[in-house]
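[step 3/7] inverse_fold.run input=structure_tokens len=356
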């Protein structure tokens, strides 16, 4: 067998036309254009794997290199000497068969989607629960200050009203909490928008407009208990972990470290808008309903509060963008009608229990 190619001497960029002769499966002779030759045993040659039509490199015993485009001849040589890395090499099959390429592409897309859709949320939840509470405090540190500086405004509720709600929050709502979070309640304004949100640390912000909409303390309680549910179930921390993993993956592929900086900057806005998954919201609702029953509060107050917010959204005469902002707490959550229905079901159970 004769294979043509180029010979590269050791520690030199020079290139010479050469021919590799293999008359048997044991020895080889490399004839170089200057009529010199190299001889040795084929078993001592290191041969690169085949990948499409990329030239193959044969590293010889003296550390020089023979390079050739005659991949088929090299494959025959490997087959002849019983070498395991022959033309059936997996990467070569993928590169030379369009069907395999298509299958590999589809599998990559499916696996990637499944990983992002189910794998990352699962991993984020496990990590969030595994982390000590002080991690949530560190993640939230400074976030409220940023929101106060750029988005939120001081509350205009009277000091007396704030004190009454604060006292009730601490003595009543927190009395049934078993988690060791440092819960704190803050009153703020947000462009006349009814909203409430919780930071992973246990800091809860409620806007003046939401309090003004409430007909009684129980309706306020229903919203605050919902936000406590987000804290207890680590929903905010899960979203941050999920976003961090995605950002790191993007950064690894794109090589752009600014993506991480952008995520840190966007964190306060994410917490403000409460972009939780439907499952997170349902879990927080269930927590609120259970705590309301435990405290002797009829869950119907939750449904009443959401009914007002639905009416507020539907009756708004503003443009679409403003309309969405005006009911931010409502628009970023799952179907309000289903949530109100669930609250009414809990209310019916609560009513029946009080009659027994």
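[step 3/7] decode complete -> sequence:
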């Amino acid at each position: 067998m004769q294979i043509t190619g180029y010979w590269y001497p050791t520690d030199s960029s020079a290139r010479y036309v050469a021919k590799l002769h293999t008359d048997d499966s044991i020895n080889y002779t490399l004839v170089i254009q200057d009529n010199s030759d190299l001889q040795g045993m084929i078993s001592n040659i290191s041969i690169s794997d085949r990948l499409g039509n990329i030239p193959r490199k044969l590293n010889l015993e003296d550390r020089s290199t023979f390079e050739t485009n005659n991949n088929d001849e090299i494959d025959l040589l490997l087959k002849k000497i019983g070498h395991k890395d022959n033309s059936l090499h997996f990467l070569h099959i993928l590169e030379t068969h369009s069907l395999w390429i298509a299958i590999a592409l589809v599998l990559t897309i499916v696996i990637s989607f499944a990983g992002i859709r189910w794998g990352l949320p699962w991993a984020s939840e496990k990590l969030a629960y595994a982390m000590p509470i002080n991690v949530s405090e560190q993640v939230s540190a400074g976030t409220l200050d940023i929101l106060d500086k750029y988005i939120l405004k001081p509350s205009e509720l009277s000091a007396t009203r704030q004190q009454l709600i604060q006292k009730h929050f601490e003595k009543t709502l927190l009395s049934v909490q078993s988690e060791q979070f440092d819960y704190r309640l803050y009153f703020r304004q947000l462009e006349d928008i009814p909203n409430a949100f919780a930071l992973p640390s246990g800091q809860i912000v409620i806007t003046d407009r939401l309090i003004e909409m409430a007909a009684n303390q129980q309706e306020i309680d229903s919203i605050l208990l919902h936000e406590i549910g987000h804290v207890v179930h680590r929903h905010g921390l899960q979203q941050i972990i999920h976003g961090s993993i995605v950002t790191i993956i993007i950064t690894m592929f794109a090589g752009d470290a600014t993506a991480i900086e952008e995520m840190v900057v966007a964190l306060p806005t994410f917490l403000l808008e409460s972009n939780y998954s439907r499952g997170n919201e349902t879990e927080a609702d269930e927590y609120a309903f259970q705590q309301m029953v435990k405290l002797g509060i009829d869950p119907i107050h939750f449904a009443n509060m959401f009914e007002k917010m639905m009416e507020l959204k539907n009756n708004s005469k503003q443009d679409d963008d403003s309309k969405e902002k005006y009911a931010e707490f409502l628009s970023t959550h799952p179907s309000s009608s289903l949530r109100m229905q669930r609250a009414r079901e809990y209310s019916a159970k609560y009513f029946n229990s009080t009659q027994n």
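[step 4/7] annotate
Residues 322-328 have pLDDT under 50 and may be disordered.
The first helix runs from residue 71 to 80.
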